[in-house]
Amino acid sequence: MFDYIKGELVSKNYPYCTVECNNIGYDIFVNSRTFSSLGELGDSIKIFLKLIHREDSMYLCGFNKKQDRVIFDILTTVSGVGVKVALSLLDEFNSNELIEAVIGENHKLISRTKGVGPKMAQKIVLELKDKLVKQNLSANVISSSSNNSAISNETLVQVQTILQSLGYSQNEYNKALQEAAENLKKDDEQELLKEALKILSVF
Question: CATH code at 99?
Answer without folding.
Answer: 1.10.150.20
